[in-house]
């Protein structure tokens, strides 16, 4: 099908954003996906503004890329502000069903007298996005693209998934799911790059992208165009269970999770094998691994400074990094490749057939994009999953450390069955990655969920004394 070219609206981005500014300052920090919690929003800069439905009609729709400005964290260098993707619906008044989507009532500027809201709650604007992907529309700087070999059916009713996420997802008729990235950066996003590479390899463990949205922004200062990946449309795994929720249900019933953990290990290994075939691999020796080890040690020192409960274990944890540095100094090398980058039970889906899938290849959003796209030893993903089993086991009362240990062992066994090598045969590297992950968790919980701090601290005690079981 030929692409559709639609002109963008002509409203001045600065004028429009100025009228929305006081509403967005209140609304944006309350969103689950807003990254700058704890610091006030001091202003906005428009990056791109596109009118998808006329704002003067019964239902208007604006696509905004805005940079939110906040005070810098004490001691941190000045930051230009995070860029967020917003879909703003415009109506005279909201029907009761859209009350949770309310942003506010505009009192000035081109939208004065109108009500604005998060448009993804509204099926009509959400269906506009799907139709644009189907027709490969070009609207302003937005490019709606799709795999020509994959069809997008008609008559699919949209519904927003309301579970807590770091992005937003819309399901279309239990057939397709659109993941809209909220905090965006220019460049090649692994959440599209890696699933496309896996689809070329024929890897069935990851839903193949059906379509995607890119945004092209003119950077007048740099005299260049910046390209953003903004959304990815993939098949929806109907009836699938989220790995985290499934594990908690089995724990609550006192059921063994070993068979599922083993199958999940096999799925992880199959994805790693396919990624190694699809994209280049590199060898890490002392010169390449050294900066990574230094970074781990620096993170440990910073978190120990901020979280006193970590300090008694600091020396023991640092020994994990020192052991890895010593091994590299002796000439040991490791193969690095593209990996998931943020693997845990919540990033896995189990279909009713029993098939496990891996999703959300964005990596840790807080890390720079270039770092998220760097080749890493696959054991980084393995370590993330092992930590996730611990989290599940310690989120119930009483904690079930034996359940976690059995799942960890089963997962590694399943991984070995598919990969041909067992992660436990490289205990020094595995311990270093587990330690780095646990330190990150300590920092996160201390800041956001202090009641959960004992969960990573239990792992810290184990890792600080080199108990790798």
In words, what does this structure look like?
This protein folds into two domains: 14-235, no CATH class; 241-464, Aminoglycoside 3'-phosphotransferase, Chain: A, domain 2. The longest helix has 22 residues, at 427-448. By secondary structure, it is an alpha+beta fold. The strands form four sheets. Strands 1-7-8-13-14-11-10-9 form an eight-stranded mixed beta sheet, covered by helices on one side. Strands 2, 3, 4, 5, 6 and 12 form a six-stranded antiparallel beta sheet that branches. The chain has a three-stranded antiparallel beta sheet with strand order 15-18-19. The protein is globular and about 65 Å long. It contains twelve helices and 19 strands. Residues 1-7 have low confidence and may be disordered.
How are the elements arranged and paired?
Layout (H helix, E strand, L loop, with lengths): L4 E2 L6 H15 L15 E11 L6 E10 L12 E10 L10 E4 L9 E4 L4 H13 L2 E2 L2 E5 L11 E3 L7 E5 L3 E5 L2 E2 L5 H11 L10 E9 L4 E12 L5 E2 H10 L5 H21 L3 E3 L1 H21 L7 H16 L4 E3 L11 E3 L5 E3 L10 H4 L6 H15 L7 H19 L7 H22 L5 H11 L5
Parallel strand pairs: 1-7
Antiparallel strand pairs: 2-3, 3-4, 4-6, 4-12, 5-6, 7-8, 8-13, 9-10, 10-11, 11-14, 13-14, 15-18, 16-17, 18-19
Helix pairs in contact: 3-5, 4-9, 5-10, 6-7, 6-11, 7-11, 9-10, 9-11, 11-12
CATH architecture label name of the largest domain = Alpha-Beta Complex
The major pleated sheet works out as: 8 strands, mixed
Strand line-up of the largest beta sheet:
1-7-8-13-14-11-10-9
In angstroms, what separates the terminal alpha carbons? 56 Å
**CATH superfamily grouping of the largest domain:** Aminoglycoside phosphotransferase (APH), C-terminal lobe
Low-confidence stretches: 1-7
CATH topology (level 3) name of the largest domain: Aminoglycoside 3'-phosphotransferase, Chain: A, domain 2
Number of domain modules: 2
Share of residues in helices: 25-40%
| Topology, number of strands | 19
Number of discrete helical segments: 12
Q: Tell the overall outline.
A: globular
Cα-atom radius of gyration: 23 Å
Overall mean pLDDT stands at 92
């Amino acid at each position: 099908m030929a692409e559709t070219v639609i002109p963008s609206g002509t409203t001045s981005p600065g004028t429009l954003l100025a009228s929305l500014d006081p509403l967005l300052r209140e609304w944006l920090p309350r969103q689950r996906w807003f990254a700058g919690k704890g610091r006030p929003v001091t202003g906005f800069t428009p990056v791109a503004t596109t009118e998808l439905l006329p704002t003067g009609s019964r239902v208007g729709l604006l696509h905004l890329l805005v940079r939110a400005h906040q005070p810098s964290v004490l001691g941190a260098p000045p930051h230009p502000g995070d860029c967020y993707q917003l879909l703003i619906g415009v109506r005279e008044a909201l029907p009761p069903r859209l009350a949770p989507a309310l942003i506010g009532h505009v009192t000035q500027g081109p939208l004065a007298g109108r009500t604005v809201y998060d448009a993804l709650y509204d099926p009509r604007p959400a269906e506009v996005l799907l139709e644009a992907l189907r027709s490969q529309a070009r609207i302003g700087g937005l490019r709606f693209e799709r795999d020509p070999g994959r069809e997008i059916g008609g008559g699919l009713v949209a519904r927003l998934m309301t579970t807590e996420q770091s992005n937003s997802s819309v399901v279309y008729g239990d057939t397709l799911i659109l993941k809209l990235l909220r905090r965006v950066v220019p460049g090649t996003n692994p959440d599209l790059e890696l699933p496309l590479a896996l689809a070329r390899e024929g890897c069935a463990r990851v839903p193949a992208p059906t379509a995607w949205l890119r945004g092209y922004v003119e950077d007048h200062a740099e005299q260049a165009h910046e390209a953003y990946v903004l959304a990815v449309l993939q098949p929806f795994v109907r009836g699938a269970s989220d790995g985290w929720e499934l594990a908690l249900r089995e724990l609550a019933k006192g059921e063994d999770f070993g068979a599922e953990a083993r199958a999940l290990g096999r799925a992880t290994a199959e994805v790693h094998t396919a990624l190694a075939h699809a994209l280049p691999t590199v060898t890490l020796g002392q010169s390449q691994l050294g900066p990574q080890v230094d970074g781990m040690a620096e993170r440990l020192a910073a978190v120990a400074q901020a979280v006193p409960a970590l300090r008694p274990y600091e020396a023991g944890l640092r020994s994990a990094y020192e052991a890895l540095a010593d091994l590299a100094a002796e000439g040991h090398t490791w193969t690095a490749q593209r990996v998931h980058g943020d693997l845990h039970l919540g990033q896995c889906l189990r279909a009713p057939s029993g098939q496990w899938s891996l999703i959300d290849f964005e990596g840790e959003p807080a890390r720079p994009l270039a770092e998220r796209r760097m080749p890493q030893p696959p054991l980084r993903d393995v370590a993330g999953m092992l930590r996730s089993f611990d989290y599940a086991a310690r989120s119930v009362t009483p904690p079930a450390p034996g359940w976690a240990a059995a799942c960890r062992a089963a997962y590694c066994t399943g991984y070995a069955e598919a990969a041909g090598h067992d992660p436990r045969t490289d205990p020094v590297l595995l311990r270093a990655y587990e330690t780095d992950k646990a330190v990150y968790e300590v920092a996160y919980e201390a800041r956001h969920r202090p009641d959960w701090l004992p969960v990573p601290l239990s792992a810290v005690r184990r890792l600080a004394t080199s108990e790798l079981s």
